[in-house]
Write a structure and sequence with these properties.
By secondary structure, this protein is α/β, with parallel strands linked by helices. It has 14 helices and 13 strands. The relative contact order is 0.17.
Amino acid sequence: MPLVPHHVASLQPYVPGKPIEEVEREYGVTDVAKLASNENALGPSPLALRAAQEACARVHLYPDGSAFLLKRALSGRFSVPVEEILVGNGSNELIELLVRTFVLEGEEVLTSAQSFVAYKLAAHAHGRTLVEAPMKERFHYDLDALHARLSPRTKLVFLANPDNPTGTWFLEKELVHFLGAVSRDTLVVLDEAYVEFVEAEGFQDALALRQRYPNLVVLRTFSKIYGLAGLRLGYAFARPEVVALLDRVRAPFNVNLVAQAAGVAALDDEEHVLLSRRLVRTERPFLEQGLRELGATVVPSQANFVLADFPGRPGMELFDALLRQAVVVRPVAGYGFPTAQRITVGTRAENVKVLAALRKVLGR
């Protein structure tokens, strides 16, 4: 066994949601409802799917390493200059690139405990110190606690809004107060993977805030609202000098040809975005009410999933019981919520199925 640095040997790998095929093989079930990974219940954008199929005829060619057409489409869609846009192999690659590029030995990454685990994994993978602020009221970001942990060593701050896995959110006025306290030499990375589902009043306009706070980096993804999770496509908005440095570090051809073509087309698919948003806004309350009737504590969410806590019922035990009913949810004991499940908002049929399965295994 070759020797590796301690920070690599001690890493706990990310555990994704169980794929449908594995559940069918392992449990002998069919018609599996996969509600574990916050995927789009309506599937991919039809315009993106058509573009991806056409692009497959060109996969003998390398992709455009500069992703010119995709960046141009993003620029037009969001009115952000091309030189302030970086695309990546999912948001996860961009998170890792930010740590690798900007956090030096002895410097720190700051985030909220129990938030998206990719921030912790990226810091630990590069042997960098991770500082975590506790959440307030168990499930909510505490920006005051994060503020108290800022130091001259803080190089990157990761904020997820809405958060994953809780679905909770903070308001723009809270964010502005926090940004005003952060050194301009510290990058604040605002992860908006679920922003298209938000309907709460007072939520941030991150693109406007970038004009006031040049150290703000905004991350977004094609995985959720556009339904392109399997193609791995994310993007970042940041000031040009930040993008230029990240561009030096990223791998050549980091975004494949099919993903680039699908991303360009998806940005024009306003109907799919509207339908996806409407489904979540209709089905999330239905799912939440059904979970409450089963005795769960349901955390208010602005995302396409809900976090449901089942006091007294160990999360892995309940997860396994649901697998036997052909339902896949996401236990979140690793996040510090030992009796909770994160459940994606599905179609009405999928939501009815998960509630029926829970009713059966809970004996309600």
